Amino acid sequence: MSTDAEDVSKDRRKYEFRKVIEELREYEGSGTQLVTIYIPPDRQISDVVAHITQEHSEASNIKSKQTRTNVQDALTSIKDRLRYYDTYPPENGIVLFSGAVSTGGGQTTMVTRSLESPPEPIQSFRYHCDSDFLTDPLENMLADKGLFGLIVLDRREANVGWLKGKRVEPVKSASSLVPGKQRKGGQSAQRFARLRLEAIDNFYQEVAGMANDLFVPKRHEIDGVLVGGPSPTKDEFLDGDYLHHELADVVVGKFDVSYTDESGLHDLVDSAQDVLADQEVMKDKAEMEEFFEKLHGGKKATYGFEPTRQNLMMGAVDRLLLSEDLRSDVVVYECPDDHEEYEVIDRRHDDPDHTCSDCGSASEKTEREDVIEYLMSIAEQRGTETKFISTDFEKGEQLHDAFGGIAGILRYETGI
Fold it and tell me: Keyword Iron, does the record have it (predicted)?
């Protein structure tokens, strides 16, 4: 499968995951009777079944009959789901949710969901029983991702690693041979100072070598480099042109951090939160800047559901821009004269009555679908790339509020 096709598949899968997570977040249970199980890809299904069997047995000690019954029913439902899997879970693992959720008026209904192959591998087995389903680990996987190189250094030590999404990965470290400021007896101050500067220069070259070896092969994927340490050190390092020029060009910030061991990498990420937040939406900003440029400078932009749908059907859309906060359905209506029309409504609303705009006849609903899934399906068939746009900046908000959360950059002018 091509890279473009893989990206489309990832976008769709992430959106489908996000939809399910939003649904799960709405559920509430009475007491601790909603069960969540995270299963990593290397955990044998038979081990998980044994664990669930043990939990089912221990649940018999729950004093409340209703809670006991609900927990055991949830565990039985999960156990039944696991029968569909062989020795190991699918790639990246699986997450299972089951429990009696409140439907109002003191009534409950049993809900069971399974999410296969999440965006990132599940790291460890986790069994969770509470009044809410545990979705935080999945939400972290779906958070805006980025790949940043991390460097922390002072004149004694240095550490180099990655920030992948929200995960810090230490990779390389080094200790310096830079002598302290006090010289040994018999050395002139001038000679000592020269030796010390040479040792500092050698250490900076060693640190840059580690960073270059790690980051340069990923230079086309990396979103930026963050550098941390005491003020004189990090400034000397960056001003001395030690880094490969392609890395120096993508240094997005330097920050004061107190530690330069592995914990310093985490401190660096904490100190850089504002810069990282800006970086996460930079690509979205670029997409929206191009959209507005096309919109104001010609006819190679489209917005709103119906014009965008028509342009998609023609294969004229290069990139489909969808707001991350779009929560709507498209309802398809057909009248007795076979006129077909579309109406976009809030996902929480019932189907409205519809009158055909061509003949004035009452129309009947023929289908209702999530508008994002509907548009993405057309986009995939026409080779159109889909971009989800954050509302964390002004033009992203405009896409949602002023353009209905739907827009596109065209390959050519269509007049629609």
Answer: no
Q: Which helix (H) or strand (E) holds 355?
A: strand 354-355
Domains for the chain: give ranges and CATH numbers: 3-142 (3.30.960.10), 147-280 (3.30.420.60), 283-410 (3.30.1330.30)
Q: Which residue has the higher pLDDT, 378 or 2?
A: 378
H helix or E strand, kind and range, residue 90: none
Contact predicate 257/154, CB 8 Å? no
Helix (H, G, I), strand (E, B) or coil at 68: helix
Give the angle 202-203-205 at the CA atoms, nearest 5°.
65
- Is this structure's pTM higher than 0.70? no
CA atoms within 13 A on the CB side of 96: 28
d(CA 347, CA 353) in angstroms, rounded, equals 16
The first and second tokens of residue 235, run together, are 């400034």
For 128, other C-beta atoms within 10 Å of its C-beta total 15
Q: Going by C-beta distance under 8 Å and a sequence separation of 6 or more, which residues neighbour residue 208?
A: 237, 242, 243, 244
Alpha-carbon gap, residue 415 to 386, rounded angstroms = 22
Answer for the pair 306, 313: CB distance below 8 angstroms, yes or no: no
Residue with structure tokens 């070259």?
205
Kindly report, residue by residue over 97-151, the tens digit of the pLDDT: 999 999 888 889 999 999 998 888 998 999 999 999 999 998 888 765 678 999 9
Token pair of 173 as six digits: 């470290």
279 band by pLDDT with thresholds 50, 70 and 90: confident
